Amino acid sequence: MIYVNDKKLCFTPAGRKAPRLVREAEFAHVCPKCGMVIHAMAVSTPGDDVPPELREKGGHALLIDLKLCGEANLEHRYIPEYDSSFIDLGDGQRAQYFVEAYHMRQFAMRSIGRCKYLRGVDCFSRTNAQQALRLMGILKLFYGAERPAWEKFQQRLDSNPMVADVVLGKLMLSCGVAVDAAGKTPPVVLISKQDWSQVEFNLIVQAAIDLPAEGTANVEV
């Protein structure tokens, strides 16, 4: 399995207890609900290698087969589906970024259905307005929004810096938070549709619209 220990990523393939590979974790966010690594970046330094049986087929010598290391290969045990990319960081360093396509909750040796957090946002936004718009955008995908109301919502984010604080305050009451286990980046906010309703989403949109427009703030997406 893939887990974080002492701020490092540990890769342990099926049938082994001790990790076969240990890599520096640039960041590694772990889902608070199911404990799976949501996404991370494993950094390899010059001289590091991956045993042939753990390498991604046809990939670079440092490209790890994430599915092989994803979870113990036992009956009824879910193997994560990781999307991955390989990045050259310069100075001989290479990094493998990966993100879990979707993840399952586990009980003992059985998966008991998908984790409720099917959608997460990396909150590396430079401003609160960016973060608020991105998180509300996910809820908009779930529930939809009338175009005039959504346009007024965006205008309020643009024109009043206080709107973002109000929106984020209301959003975080029903969001999950995945803290960076490597201690280097801000938390990732997770959204689950089952925690929300159309009414709750519309209330946040309307609360933002009701705030007066004052000042200026640029929002980028």
Question: What percentage of the residues does DSSP assign to strands (E)?
Answer: 25-35%
Uncertain residue segments: 216-221
State the separation between the terminal residues, measured CA to CA.
34 Å
Strand order of the largest sheet: 1-2-3-4-6-5
Biggest sheet statistics = 6 strands, antiparallel
Shape: elongated
Number of strands: 11
Average pLDDT confidence is: 84
Describe the oligomeric state of these chains in a short phrase: single chain
**Order of helical and strand elements:** EEEEHEEEEEHHHEEH
Binned, the helix content reads 25-40%
The gyration radius over C-alpha positions equals 20 Å
Task: Count the DSSP helices.
Answer: 5
Tally of separate domains: 2
- Protein structure class: alpha+beta
Give a structural overview.
The protein is of the alpha+beta class and 221 residues long. The chain has 2 domains: 2-115, no CATH class; 120-210, no CATH class. Helices cover 26% and strands 28% of the residues. It has 5 helices and 11 strands, in the order ββββαβββββαααββα. The strands form 3 sheets. It has a 6-stranded antiparallel beta sheet. A hairpin with a 6-residue loop joins β3 (21-30) and β4 (37-44). α3 (147-159) crosses α4 and α3 packs across α5 (198-210). Mean pLDDT is 84; it is low at 216-221.
